[in-house]
Amino acid sequence: MSDELLNLRKRIDQLDGEILARLSERARCAQRIGEVKQGNLYRPEREAQVLRRLGDANPGPLPDKAVQKIFREIMSACLGLEKPLRVAYLGPAGTFSESASRKHFGSAPDFLPLASIEDVFRAVEAGHADYAVVPVENSTEGAVNVTLDLLLANPLKICGELKLRIHQHLLSRAADLGAVKRLYSHSQSLAQCHEWLNRNLGGVLRVPVASNAEAARLASEDPESCAVAGEAAGELYGLNKLAANIEDAPDNTTRFLVIATHDAGPSGEDKTSFVFSARNRPGAMHTLLEPLARHGVDMTKLESRPAGGGLWEYVFYADVKGHREEPAVAAALNELDERAAFVKVLGSYPVAAI
């Protein structure tokens, strides 16, 4: 071994010791904050600020995203010293919802896979989970309507968001495509990979199931079947990857929301989501949206859903830049509330940091 290599390894050992000492000091500070606050340490706005600051201050050579992921795990571990958070998601294990939950909260919480998005909301409302992660829209397939409907009907708030790139893989116990006779997957994943499947597995029976993880489980029990699912599901059930990244849109992304009994404080880079309905009169939508434009509030999303109260009656879901406590957003929402038949603020929360 050369002197240079030996010296570099000694330096790495020294740095590792220094990092460990600093991590321990950070953890003790987090514990003390918990003693002072006498409550939940998790603050969505604070964590978003920390992750953004670290990304901006990163001198390299590690990429910003790598640094943020490392510190995400450090914060997660520190939070878990007091009492692990309980985070519900749409199960079973191995779904994209689980991957999104771990991306946002790190690996320290107790993760609770549940059978439906309704059960996920119910777990938080009943106090069985502190937070939940639910899909709300996909870049190619659009809105997840059950999530929108539950946000309208439920008292829970949005306290965070994240975006997850969705890579679909063809998974199987079989060694090649020629041995496959059945294909299991969630209906949205089948739609996201429609063209690839038509080209490569046009004659294979497609069987929609409740989740991609369930598809992987079924494929693991049948050597003549395959599943379209994510990498986590393939690893969980020990499947071969017959083809990777088969989604038709290479930038396929799903946006998830973090829900709780509270929303988040201002972080400096926030969104506010709300739902409203218009009175049935000419120019009603213009009247409702005019305060947003006049106060300089930037709307990033507007989507309609049937209201359920009568034929051709709709509610409108909107996202705007800014926190509900910011003067311009607060003024615009107050005027909207005076003009609309119904307004419900779903929450203000940090824009996805990683």
UniProtKB/TrEMBL annotation:
Start and end residues of each Prephenate dehydratase domain: 86-261
Lineage, uppermost ranks: Bacteria, Pseudomonadati, Pseudomonadota, Betaproteobacteria, Rhodocyclales
Limits of the ACT domain: 273-350
InterPro entries in UniProt: ACT-like_dom_sf, ACT_dom, Chor_mutase/pphenate_deHydtase, Chorismate_II_sf, CM_dom_sf, CM_II_prokaryot, G/b/e-P-prot_chorismate_mutase, Preph_deHydtase
List keywords of the entry alphabetically.
Amino-acid biosynthesis, Aromatic amino acid biosynthesis, Cytoplasm, Isomerase, Lyase, Multifunctional enzyme, Phenylalanine biosynthesis
Q: Where is the Chorismate mutase domain?
A: 1-86
Q: Does the keyword Glycoprotein apply?
A: no
The metabolic or biological pathway listed in the UniProt record of this protein is: Metabolic intermediate biosynthesis; prephenate biosynthesis; prephenate from chorismate: step 1/1; Amino-acid biosynthesis; L-phenylalanine biosynthesis; phenylpyruvate from prephenate: step 1/1
The name under which this protein is listed is: Bifunctional chorismate mutase/prephenate dehydratase
Single GO molecular function: prephenate dehydratase activity
Residues of the site described as Essential for prephenate dehydratase activity: T254
General function of this protein: Catalyzes the Claisen rearrangement of chorismate to prephenate and the decarboxylation/dehydration of prephenate to phenylpyruvate.
Pfam families assigned: ACT, CM_2, PDT
On the tree of life, the source organism's domain of life is: Bacteria
- Reactions catalysed: prephenate + H(+) = 3-phenylpyruvate + CO2 + H2O; chorismate = prephenate
Where does this protein come from, organism-wise? Azoarcus indigens
Which GO BP terms apply? chorismate metabolic process; L-phenylalanine biosynthetic process
GO cellular component, alphabetical, reads: cytoplasm
- Where does this protein reside within or beyond the cell? Cytoplasm
Its Enzyme Commission number(s) read: 4.2.1.51, 5.4.99.5
